[in-house]
Design a protein that fits this description.
31% of the residues lie in helices and 23% in strands. It contains seven helices and six strands.
């Protein structure tokens, strides 16, 4: 990924950054919906994002304001052939310093393959990455039913926080599904990490050392599902 970031003029500028623009840039899909939501909120983060972070009650996340939002931020991980691509990297500043928020946008799309499905690929690169993810997140073991995407997105949040010397890392699902599709998958992942899961909130993951980690889920404004 290039280190030079150019400012956007609107949501359409996000399209070219997608891995597969022709497939993913569609009305009602997460890429366009998320772009419209964040562009409309500028120069702040969307209000539901700010509320979810504030809900933690943790001093690290109090009164955060947006410094910079980078769409489709790529993070290199061991193993595999491609970097992990974070929908939005939001660097925010609060009372105790900078916080790195890795945002995963969702409308109706699932989180992709499970850990069990990735294991069945029997690929040396996938096996290496999966082993690293489980170890890096301090899981010991990981059930087959857990969604693989949640593992590498959370690991990316921690790596980004280290990269920017942030005080905390947040992996936040920004969902625009009125029925909260796939929240059960997120809840199972949160339970694996020993964290609470509730819509509109962010919870701290208890870790023995390293960068403090939070995960959460917030519900976005459904009007952004329509092309504006």
């Amino acid at each position: 990924m290039k280190r030079i970031v150019a400012p956007t003029k609107g949501a359409k500028d996000w399209r070219r950054l997608l891995a597969r623009p022709g497939l993913h840039w569609r009305e009602g899909r997460s890429a366009m919906t998320l772009a419209q939501s964040w562009e409309a909120a500028h120069p702040s983060a969307p209000p539901e994002v700010e509320r979810a972070l504030q809900s933690s009650g943790d001093p690290l996340l109090m009164d955060l304001s947006l410094l910079l939002a980078i769409p489709e931020y790529q993070v290199d991980l061991p193993g595999g052939q491609r970097p992990s691509q974070t929908d939005v990297l939001a660097l925010m500043r609060g009372r105790q310093g900078v916080v790195a928020v890795a945002v995963e946008g969702k409308v109706d799309e699932p989180f992709g393959p499970t850990v069990g499905e990735k294991r069945s690929e029997r690929s040396a690169g996938v096996d290496e990455r999966l082993e690293w993810l489980i170890g890096f997140l301090g899981l010991g073991e990981c059930p087959d039913a857990i969604r693989y995407q949640l593992l590498h997105r959370t690991a990316s949040a921690l790596l980004i926080a280290q990269q920017f010397d942030a005080k905390a890392a947040v992996m936040l699902v920004h969902s625009f599904s009125p029925s909260g599709l796939w929240f059960d998958d997120f809840s199972a992942f949160a339970a694996l990490l020993g964290a609470d899961a509730a819509v509109g909130t962010v919870s701290r993951v208890e870790r023995e050392d390293g960068v403090p980690l939070f995960i959460g889920w917030c519900r976005g404004d459904e009007r952004f599902r329509t092309r504006l």
